[in-house]
C-alpha cells in the first residue's frame, strides 16, 4: 500500500493543464482531488483495519504513532513493526518535501478509541458467554454421571437381592430334602419294627402248636 501511495504521489508522467469543456475547470485540479480522495479513503480503511487488531501482540495506532498492546490492552511502548504512513486531509509536508508528519484528527482518534472499547466489551461478553456455556456443560455432565452411578448402584442392589433370594431357596430345598430323608428313614425303621414284631409273633405261635 505504501508503494502504491508513493507511485500515486511521485508519478513521473507530465500532465498538461487542460481545461474541462463543460465545467471550465482544470483537469489537473480534478485529478488531484480524485487522487487525494482515493488517498483519504485508503488511509481511513487502513486505520480501521489497524484499529480492529487489539488482541495479543497486534499493532494499533494511538496518539498518531504505532503502539503495541498487551493482553490487558495497555500500551507497552513503540512497536518494531513499521506501519505505512498515509496522507490524509490533515497531513503536512516539511519544507524539504521529503519527510511527512501526520496530525491526528481528534474525531478520528475518538472513533478509534470507541472501536477499541467496543471490541473489548464484545470480547469480554463473548468470554463470559463461553464460560457460562462451559459451566452449563459441566453441570449437565455431572448430572448424567450421577444418574449413571445411581442406576449402577440399583443394579448391584437388585443383584444382591436376587442372590439372597436364590440362597434362601437353596436353603429351603436342603431343609425339605433333609426332612424327606428323615421321614423315609422313620418309615423304613417303622416297617422293620413291624416286620420284626410279626416274625416274633409267628415264632411264638409255632412253638405253641408244637407242644
Automatic annotation (TrEMBL):
It comes from the Eukaryota. Residues 1-18, 30-41 have a biased composition (Basic and acidic residues). Residues 1-41, 86-109 are annotated as: Disordered. This is Uncharacterized protein.
